[in-house]
Amino acid sequence: MKRAKIFCIGLSLLFLSHAAFATIPKPEEVLGFNIGTDRKVADMHQIVDYFAKLDKASERILVKEIGKTTMGNPFIVAFITSAENHKNLEKYRQYQQLLADARKITDEEAEEIISEGKAVVMINCSIHASEIGACQMSMELAYDLAAKNDKSTREILDNVILLLTPMHNPDGTQLVVDWYKKNLGTKYEGSPMPWLYHKYVGHDNNRDWYMFTQVESRLTIKVHNAWHPQVILDMHQTGRTGARIFVPPFVDPYEPNIDPILRQQVAMMGTFIASEMTGEGKAGVIHSNRYDAWTPARAYHHYHGGIRILTEVASIKLATPLTIKFKDFAAYVKEPSVKMPMPWKGGRWALRDIVDYDYSAAKATLTNAAKLRENWLRNFYRIHKKAVNRKEPPFAYIIPDKQKDLSTTIKMMNVLQMGEVEIHRASESFAADGHEYPEGTYIVFLAQPYGGFAKALLENQVYPAIREYPGAPLKTPYDVVAHTLPLLMGVEAIRINDPFQAKSVKVDKLSRPRGKIDAVDNAFGYAWGHDTNDDIVALNRLVKKGYSISWASENFSAKGKKYPAGTMIVQNKKGLVEDLKSVASDLGVHFEGILAKPEIKAYALNPVRLGLYKSWDASMDEGWTRWVLEQYEFAYKSIHNKEIKKGDLNENFDVIIFPDLRTSTIINGISEESIPPEYSGGIGEIGVKNIKEFIQKGGTLITLNSAADFALKQFSLAIENSVEKVDRKTFFVPGSLLKVSIERNHPIAYGCEAEGAVFFRRSPVLAVKEGKSIVAYPAHNPLLSGWINGEDYFYNKSALVDVTLGEGRIIIIGFPVLYRGQSHSTFRLLFNSIYYGATSLGEL
Ligand SMILES: [Zn+2]
């Protein structure tokens, strides 16, 4: 009897599943190979195509194109849940919105939603495109969820809404697969790609989760903010000789604004995945190792009610298998430990293994979310309820509406708003912490759902001193440690500790201030400031139109008004006023008419023939430099080794930038053993000679951050890097914001304040016996935000030097001046250097 019943159920299931299977295409039927086969990888087009087919064939899968990527490819997300849930998708999305804002519902209403709602899981695959396993796996996962009808699949489909991003960097997936296929079967199979796998930012695409500079970040945030997933699984790959997979818990420290509930959930999910995988017999699963949770640059979700589960699976040579011997393993994975009770024994490691590990991690994540659906939703609600009921100081941050660079201030507030931070504007004056603030002041109250995100980005970071035992060396951070937007962007933001009352309204859209032109008849020309980054965009636009423009090198007066050195002056010409009007309205720049020609010396500004060195050892800083130059409308040309080796650089360039690169990379590049000959090598000794000749004949070389070393050594300058030979235990500043003083009368520093902040990471500290120091560290601890060890190495040293060589100059900018597109307050030091590098002082 019992037997017969089971049989019946079995038959009916078989029948049902057969019907479902009939129409849903298997990955191998579409791709022509089994996923995870050695040396076989699906590219972006194939993956998009496969998901389109699933969308058509399955009621459980809805594939949406969220937008276009940087290179114009489709950025897709697959919404996967039961057919029944799909009918009510919008209702479930609304539930998420309500649970995310405890001001809108009561505890009783929350409980009703919790019992009815679905856990939302987001899985992001292969943001680092060469970490290709996850995007291949995504097709297998989607197929199984579409086609299978077993108990665990149904449990997931009924309880979870999965937002699956099969490729988190579609452009990169295509680039790396094309490169891999091109070299397949040659000596260079699996060789590194000579360009970035994101057009501008390469690997840093996963460091953009609070600044949202790149298109793909913005598209992801759009989905995230619409759905507020409780669980986000970010699938990566790492080195070859360590553990087979890392899962959380993370190691200390957590960034202090991340809710403790969330931290516990990260640990719980991580160890659940670890136990499931170990249960399946998968060896080498490690947790609580290496990766911390300090920077929001990798974890938007931690400030938005969702846990970030990072997985890092051991890599191969893209899809080419490796044999790894136990003796070659990193020491920490050889013996069983609490973190990894079942070490891997070594042997063959192939794409199929990576896909299997990724699949298991994804499946375990979904299983946990399904089984503990209510717990996830309840804690999600609790996190947001705590956030809106926040009582501890600070109470708010105030952002005055009178700022040196209002347009950049608005960009900063736009960033906060993209992270769903609510910004208010005072409709009358008010007092806070004993000071009076006028109407129009912006206020960020911290008792709001994403107050923690705002606080993390507005406050100065204090990275903790962690020692394994008393007297042990300080634990050095895993990643950068400072992310204070007001310091990075040059914006004044004031921390207010005590509660205050202010009449204010929430502002939804902040737009750039409108500029204006004070036109005068028979003007000699028009003057505008040098205070905002948009002032320099205005310069670029007008220079491109062929107007005669200068920087005043000294103070002057016109119409009774005093103008400082650095003021930009454009001489009058037919059509100018119309052009100024258009620039003013677009950029918020204020042009003032000048009747008579000021009797001053000035720097004449012409279109600069700018070259940006592009190594085949692809550099993220080179990419970020391209990105910022384009955003601020600088014309440039990339220069490769070949052109530098050819010489006669003055024929084509006034200014050449060497981005943050090591000297050995610039001179020697990558060896022919590792990369095809057309991309091997660097500029060589001949290139060094040609660069020197370029400078001596009047050209300007600008070196960024660690590329300072190239200039110091190759041209035997009397400038030293004081920390070059100092070990990490004595000196380490892993991405902090430091105080500097600035020679603001020097053209490179026009528009700067006398004091400022620079981002410091893998940077030199310059002891200057030659040239002019423009930016200098103080004679005391320069730390403003982050972490510093070895502060006395900075005392009175320089961060930016202008040196002449023959008829030209070298401008050594010894810090990341454009740091990941974030350090708006120092952008102008590079912008000015570009123009300064191609001009000289003369009569106006
Ligand atoms: Zn990665």
Account of the 3D structure:
The model is unreliable at about 1-20 (pLDDT under 50). The strands form nine sheets. Strands 28, 29, 30, 31, 33, 34, 36, 37, 38 and 39 form a ten-stranded mixed sheet that branches. This protein is an alpha+beta fold. It has 24 helices and 40 strands. The chain binds zinc ion (ZN). Zinc ion binds near residues 128, 131 and 236.
Main attributes of the structure:
single chain; 844 residues; alpha+beta; 10-stranded mixed β-sheet; 8-stranded mixed β-sheet; disordered N terminus; binds zinc ion
User: With helices defined by DSSP (H or I, 4 residues minimum), what is the helix count?
Assistant: 24
Tell me the helix content.
Answer: 25-40%
Q: Which stretches are low in confidence, meaning pLDDT under 50 for 5 or more residues running?
A: 1-22
**Cofactors, ions and other ligands in the entry:** zinc ion
Beta strand %: 15-25%
Q: Measured on Cα atoms, how large is the radius of gyration?
A: 29 Å
How many β-strand runs?
40
Averaged pLDDT: 96
Ends apart, CA distance between termini: 104 Å
Structural class: alpha+beta
Cα shape: globular
The biggest beta sheet, please?
10 strands, mixed
